[in-house]
Amino acid sequence: MNKIRELKVKSGIALNPSTPVNTITHLLDSMDLLILMTVNPGFGGQSFIETMLPKIKEAKKLVKGSDIEILVDGGVTEKNIKKIRDAGADILVAGSAVFNKKDSIKNNIIRLKALV
């Protein structure tokens, strides 16, 4: 990870839904971003796994006092974006909610941003 930082690039670690947050405790000094997958990786359009909200809160507590940002990827929609943000997500990835709608991409992004 030092090589990544030498290149002035942020380093991050991604955790699948079933991977406990505490498995990366020893790596906190090496990362800038903690990515929490809130669907099982594989394909777009999956539903957000509601039981990930406590995991987001746990991750936020774990990185408290550091510059590590929490990124949530998977199932982010207009219906859940606020509670994901309230749980502690700093960055949200919304694929289907942006690209798989009848409205324009721009309008979908504006609508999502207005909800957080």
Keywords:
116 residues, four-stranded parallel sheet, globular, TIM Barrel, alpha/beta
Short account of what is shown:
This protein has 116 residues and is of the alpha/beta class. It has 5 helices and 4 strands.
What can you see in these coordinates?
The structure is a single chain. It is built from 5 helices and 4 strands. The relative contact order is 0.15. The protein has one domain: Alpha-Beta Barrel (TIM Barrel), CATH 3.20.20.70. The model has no long low-confidence stretch (mean pLDDT 93). The protein has a 4-stranded parallel beta sheet with strand order 1-2-3-4, covered by helices on one side. The chain is 33% helix and 15% strand. With 116 residues, the chain is an alpha/beta fold. The chain is globular. The longest helix has 11 residues, at 53-63.
Please write out the topology.
Elements: H1 2-6, E1 12-15, E2 33-37, H2 53-63, E3 69-73, H3 81-87, E4 91-93, H4 96-99, H5 105-115
Parallel strand pairs: 1-2, 2-3, 3-4
